[in-house]
Amino acid sequence: MTTDRIYLTGYRGTGKTTVGKLISAELATECVDLDHVIEQAAGKTIREIFAEGGEDLFRDWESRCLRQVAADRSQGRVISLGGGAILREQNRDVIRQTGVCIWLTASPDVIAQRLAADQTTGRRRPALTELSPVEEIRELLARREPLYRQAADLILASDAKPPEQLARDAVRWLGRQGGPISR
Fold first, then answer.
1. What are 125-175's pLDDT values in tens digits?
2. How far apart are CA 118 and CA 122, in angstroms?
3. CB under 8 Å to 45, separation ≥6 — which residues?
């Protein structure tokens, strides 16, 4: 198992960016937020990409940018993925071949509370269904959970521990994997 890249996956609001930044600080590397890479490469917000070409266009950008980040050794080793990055098999292959994947989980109710409290989420990311927020989360989690599980090398419950503890747990686990962990 290679720990050259450390990918964080999970539904929106599970703490991928926060925990990723804490892990990267502990490992003295950069944390790359794939959503920001997509927006910079496209020259548009995620919401604008969805408006222009729907989810398919966004997923194309996501796959292209994931391959770029995975191959670019000058960028940080910690990569915070979008919640749906694991939907495409080619993305799961890139993740598997270039690093380890940490899946952050949380209950649908906790996710909905976190998303409602985050002022930027609604502006940056469109709803993916016509359902209520909690029902959308439940439906998408039911579809995505097998893929998250397939991609995950480590599963951490983000509704059970604070981000700092999750990062410490992840770094401890990474050290046990025998990979090149620097401090």
1. 566 666 777 888 999 999 999 999 999 999 999 998 999 999 999 999 998
2. 8
3. 39, 124
- DSSP strands (E only) in 54-182: 78-80, 99-105, 154-157
Query: Are 29 and 77 in contact, with CB atoms under 8 Å apart?
Result: yes
Token pair 């490992």 in the structure block, residue: 27
The encoded tokens of residue 50 equal 């969805």
Q: What is the spatial distance between Cα 169 and Cα 79, in angstroms, rounded to a whole number?
A: 17
pLDDT tens, 61-95? 999 999 999 998 776 699 999 999 999 999 999 99
- Please, which residues have CB within 8 angstroms of residue 124's CB and are 6 or more apart in sequence? 35, 45, 46, 47
CB atoms within 10 A of CB 136: 17
Angle between the N-to-C axes of helices 46-71 and 89-98, in degrees from 0 to 180, rounded to the nearest 10: 40
Please name the helix (run of DSSP H) or strand (run of DSSP E) that holds residue 109, with its range, or none: helix 108-117
Half-sphere exposure of 8 (CA within 13 A, CB side): 34
Cβ atoms of 121 and 13 within 8 Å: the answer is: yes
What is the separation, in whole angstroms, between the first and last Cα of the chain?
A: 20
